[in-house]
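Q: Got a minute? One more chain.
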Amino acid sequence: MNLSNLGARFKGRFQRSLSTLSFPRPFRMRNQTPFISFTFDDFPCSAFRTGGAILKNARLRGTFYTSFGLMGKEAPTGRIFSLDDLRGAVAEGHEIGCHTYAHYDSWRTAPGVFEESIIENQRALAGLAPGVAFKTFSYPISWPRPRTKRRAGRRFACCRCGGQTFNSNVIDLNSLKAFFLEKSRNDATRVKSLIDQNIQSQGWLILATHDIAEKPTPYGCTPSFFEEIVAYSAASGARILPVIEAWQAICDSSAQVG
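A: Always. Here it is, folded:
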């Protein structure tokens, strides 16, 4: 490994550690049932048209994290959603989550600018889908700066990062963990093992990806892989809900126990 790669890895670990430790909003899970949520960042057309269809066939719903500044454009994750896709997702009961208007990098963007992009995204949603509101958030691209994390946490029920694991015991509502499927898209066994671990821990596994296509971008996975993971999740015994509904169910069950 050359020095530049080593430096990049050290920098990434530092950012992740600082972000994780800063401004947490802890919550102790006391639910007796495990949960799984399927999420799509950027909301590419294929995420709804193909991924959404797979979920619908399984009678499930997910969360689409949306940046309205990307709507209708080509992005590294493919063609981004259209107005018809947005309306279709809402009509089918999927959650529409916030991903900032401009898809800003969560670490490189100044906290004030980042928060303004959240507000702009909320305005766009209100104009295009009256009556629909963002309740949860996904940080774009990287782990958030500490003050960005604090600002976002004040605006949403919960905010999602990465981490490649599930949530259990005491969780940080300003930085929920997620597992990106594309990082194991050639190894369904690894994902299934994590689903099993989540069941045993009565945790909350948030599965994330971007496009769903026969020839996916580096940030997505194939329909057959996604369908296999959906089927295994459905048979696992976990409750499968959009992020906001899973959080509400966890909160309710934890309150009953507590």
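A: Residues 27-257 form a domain with the TIM Barrel fold (CATH 3.20.20.370).
Q: Perfect, thanks.
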